[in-house]
Amino acid sequence: MLVEKRYFETLHNGYGQYFDVTEILFEQKTPQWHLIIFNNPNFGRVMALNGIIQTTERDEFIYHETLTHTPILAHGNVKSVLIIGGGDGGILREVVKHQDIEHITMVEIDNTVVDMCKTYFPNHSACAYDDPRVNLVISDGADFVNKTSERFDVIISDCTDPVGPGEALFEYAFYAGCKRCLDENGIFVAQNGVPFMQIEELTTSQQRLSAYFSDVTFYTSCVPTYVGGQMALAWGTENHALRKESVQTISERYNASNIVTKYYNPHIHVASFALPNFVSQAIKNVANNQR
Ligand code: SAM
User: 158 C-alpha to center of ligand 1: Å?
Assistant: First the structure.
């Protein structure tokens, strides 16, 4: 919400962050969102959808590297990736860094987000859309996963919070569709909010994901403009060993991939699965209630 020269995020009641706005670069009511892109002296260009901060030039790499490289290097032999959402292009940029991946499908519901982020956040996608392995589909992700005949080794849901069309990406039907098109040894990961502020979002996802995956947990990253503490990233797979790969194994894969990262590294990879007690206890409570 814009008040004079300040943008106030409206995600949480009674608590939030604001950004001084030095220039509004783009603002439009698209069929899906109220989309705004503006300049801020501390974080560079900032995008918000429906009053919720989506990405900033300055701290985007933390989130995009963590959500992308953790499942891909844990898996160790990824040939096909599905990105749901991700309209700012940051996840796509990180996925295309992996030369062994043979094809990448990205399903984003709002073409205006893709187009405006190509224009105002060129370093997010960094020409990744031109990679011949990439197939961009403008559609609802929940619909896509329940209809596609493609199969994927990793599915990355880089979704908004569960608002508007984003709600569908936290429902049973979406998770069922992801399980349906994920390879039996595959990994599903998803943006799952800041548990200190949104613990119900985490426990609801765990409950729903557990209907389709036998190994459901979360890993974390600290993204300054996703306020309120660590961000939780959902993890679902049938292969319980994948998230327990050693620093040595992840290091071998990381070095062999020749990818360059500013935040992600093998030690952070392994450490990101260590959860604070209030989160692991909330997960245990859900598991106990499901028995
Ligand atoms: N990193 C951000 C976060 O953690 O909140 C998310 C960034 S990305 C811009 C979120 C994208 O999800 C948006 O481009 C939005 O249009 C897309 N999206 C939301 N619901 C969707 C759906 N049902 N199908 C496909 N894309 C969707």
Answer: 6
CA distance 253 to 248: 9
Residues 46 and 69 in one domain: no
Q: Do 252 and 166 lie in a common domain?
A: yes
> By C-alpha distance, which of 168, 46, 187, 37 is closest to 107?
168
- C-beta of 174 in contact with ligand 1 (< 6 A): no
Q: What is the pLDDT of residues 194-236, one digit of tens each?
A: 999 999 999 999 999 999 999 999 999 999 999 999 999 999 9
| Rounded distance between C-alpha atoms, residue 263 and residue 79, angstroms | 24
Q: What is the pTM of this model?
A: 0.98
Residues 110 and 158 in one domain: yes
> What angle separates helix 195-209 from helix 277-290, to the nearest 10 degrees?
30
Number of domains composing the chain: 2
Whether residue 261 contacts residue 65, with contact meaning beta carbons closer than 8 Å, is answered with yes
CB 75 within 8 A of CB 153: yes
Ligand 1 center to 52 CA (angstroms)? 11
- Full domain range(s) for residue 173: 60-290
241 and 125 share one domain:
yes
The residue type of 183 is D
Rounded distance between C-alpha atoms, residue 34 and residue 12, angstroms: 17
- Angle of helix 60-75 relative to helix 247-257, nearest 10 degrees, comes to 110
